[in-house]
Design a protein that fits this description.
Blueprint lengths: L1 E10 L2 E11 L4 E5 L6 H9 L4 E8 L2 E2 L5 H6 L2 E4 L11 H6 L11 H7 L1 H5 L10 H13 L5 E5 L7 H16 L3 E6 L2 H4 L5 E6 L2 E7 L7 H8 L2
Amino acid sequence: MFEVKGLEAWYGESHVLHGVDFQVGEGEVVTLLGRNGAGKTTTMKSIMGLVPRRRGSIIYKGRETVKMRPDEVAKSGIAICPEERGIFAGLNVTENLMLPPVIGPGGLDLPTIYALFPNLKERAASQGTKLSGGEQQMLAIGRILRTGAKFLLLDEPTEGLAPVIVQQIGRTIRELRTRGFTVLLVEQNFRFAATVADRHYVMEHGRVIDMIPNSEIEAKMDKLHEYLGV
C-alpha cells in the first residue's frame, strides 16, 4: 500500500535523510525505531510534505506523492498525529474533534471515538489544553479518526505518559487495525512497539539499517539494545 524509496531530506543546508527505504502493507502496524536524531520524525514530516526540500519516491496506493503539497497528501488519505499534538486552546474537546474536514468515507463518528476514549467523553465540554497529557494524546489521535484517512502516522504517541495511558493507547492501536486502518508509528519505547506492531524498521543517521519482524524481536533483543543504546 505504501512504499518509500531513496528518500532524502534537508533542513536548510543540513542533510537529514540519506536514502530511506521501507514499505507498509495495507492493514499493518509498522514502527520506525531509533535513537533521538535518527531521522524518524523527519521521515514522517517528509511523507506529509512538511519538509521544504526532499527528493526520492513516496508511493501511496500506486500514486507518487513526493511532489504533492501537504494538503494534497492529506486529501489522498494520509493523516498525521504530530508529537506536539497541536490541540487548539480556544476549542473544547468536541470542537477539536470536529475541526478537521472529512476527506473520504470510512471515518469514525463521535460516539465511536468516545467509545474508544471514554475519558474524552467525560471531558467533552472541557477546553482542549486543560486536559492531562494522556487525554490530549487521545484527543490528537481521535481527531484524525473522523477524517476518513486510512493511513495514520503516529509520532511518539506514548512519550511521557503514565503506563495506564500507554496501555490504553496500545489497545486503541490494535482496535484500529481490526477496523482496517494502517498505522506507521514512530517510537523509542520498543517494548510498547512490540505489543502493537507487525514489523519494525530501525533507523540510524537518516537511513533504515534493519527490519525486524515482531515475531523475531525477542531473539534479536541484544541487537535492539545495541541499536537503541538502551
